Prior knowledge:
It is a single chain. By secondary structure, this protein is an alpha+beta fold. The protein has one domain: Elongation Factor Tu (Ef-tu), domain 3. It is built from 2 helices and 6 strands. The protein has a 6-stranded antiparallel β-barrel with strand order 1-2-5-4-3-6. A hairpin with a 2-residue loop joins strand 3 and strand 4. The longest helix has 20 residues. The protein is globular and about 40 Å long.
Amino acid sequence: MDEGQWLSGRVVRGLQNGRTFGFPTINIALDEHCSVEDTGVFAVELLLQGNKYKGMLYIGTRPTLSLQEKTLEINIFDFDQDCYDAEVKFKIGKKIRAEQKFASVEELISQLKKDKDEISELFRN
């Protein structure tokens, strides 16, 4: 994984759509000195509550859900805890794909499964 800059923020409540799709995410409110301009799906490493994790990060407006606000959210692999208001540090790795609008939520979920498989393979190698 690329040696990128560590970014930081706080875990905030989201709409919880990812949870209903089988891909629960933590939503991040970036610290004021941090910014991310690119959008899409990325491999990510993160530090949360004293532990190191891997996952997939999404930055964008969620066009399939017809939403407008840009969000930054991470599906943490092998993680199932409540961490609202926790501080998180993360490093963005390889971009897997650009943000895109899918014809249905089912197509989005199918793509998320492929994204997770591809990112998991990256971390194995």
